[in-house]
Specification:
Length: 97
C-alpha cells in the first residue's frame, strides 16, 4: 500500500469517526432543535497516549479526561518522514508532500 493510499484510508477513517461524533443530541434549554452537531479536531503535536491516559486516569489532567470521555480518540498512524509541518498540512489539505 502506498503512502498516499494509507493517508486516504486514514482520512476516510477520520471522517467516519467525525461523522459519528456530530450526531444530534437532545435539545437543552435555549438550544435550537434543528441546529446541527459540531465536530472539533483537537491535535497535540508530539502527544503520546501512553503518557496522557495514565495521567488522565489519576486525575492529573481532568479537563483532558472530560474531552476524552465525551468525544472520540485515536492514534494517528503517521507518514514518514514525520515532520510536523508536512503532517499538519497533509491533515488539513489531504495532499501528501
Amino acid at each position: 500500500m502506498t503512502s498516499r493510499s494509507r493517508l486516504l484510508a486514514l482520512l476516510a477513517c477520520f471522517l467516519a469517526v467525525a461523522s459519528a461524533a456530530c450526531g444530534r443530541r437532545e435539545a437543552g434549554p435555549g438550544d435550537a432543535s434543528d441546529r446541527p452537531g459540531r465536530v472539533v479536531i483537537f491535535g497535540i503535536d508530539g502527544a503520546d497516549w501512553q503518557v496522557i491516559e495514565p495521567l488522565a486516569a489519576r486525575g492529573r489532567m481532568p479537563a483532558f479526561k472530560r474531552i476524552m470521555d465525551r468525544g472520540a480518540t485515536g492514534t494517528l498512524r503517521s507518514m514518514l518522514p514525520s515532520a510536523s509541518p508536512s503532517l499538519w498540512t497533509t491533515i488539513v489539505t489531504g495532499v501528501v508532500p
